[in-house]
Amino acid sequence: MSTPEKWVLTPAFLLGADTDSVSQKSDLAETAILHYDIVQNPGTVFHFELQWIGSTARCIEDTLRQWSRAIERYGLKLVEAYVTEISDIRDRNAFQSCFPLRLAVPPPVVLDLEKRIPECAQSTHYFEYALLRRFGFIIDVEAMNMYPKDVDVVYSYRRAPFKHSQFVHRSGVAFVQVLGGSQGFLFLTNRLMGAGRMGTTMKSRDRPAAAADEIRSKLHDFCSDKAALIKFYDEELAALGPDDPPPLSI
Fold first, then answer.
1. CB atoms within 10 A of CB 180
2. Domain termination site, one of 31, 55, 81
């Protein structure tokens, strides 16, 4: 049987390894297939999915623990993530659902926003992305409609394209999807972290659910505060370029 596990590495690169050569605890050839996501922006996170046939869970767990110890010295974190987008979590787990975070004041509509934002930045959901970055979230998976029309992104492991852009907290304890407008976001605690999960280190077992609840509470309070949101939008607008940039001199 082939068992898939998706992992997120924030925020840098990790190479795979032959699990049999890592563990040295089995007389059998135990090999895992690693699908690595090369389309992801290296400034955010990297994805890979492990699939294994005829390998023991102990073998995979030992491999992940070794990887985790190796990257800790560089300030990196290995996080087990959901294979599909979090908005579909109820279809797979009746005991878990996303928490809605509505915006008391929707983001402003700015004419010619794409001309004022930094190069390579997305004008769609610009303010929502900026708000999540302020709370320590980084992009996990972009929605399919965020890619240019002439770009065809194909994954060797992903089952379906994401309908909404998804972010992961730098600690790995929570995920957020961007709905946009006054609908705001969907928040999900990462229940894949914690004691007993494969690849989990002692440091990352430190009450991840409680940490996620604290992040959700702060984000919910901010999204519900009209004055705070208006101030945030004004600050983001002030940081953008002018409406009509001066002509270039030759």
1. 17
2. 81
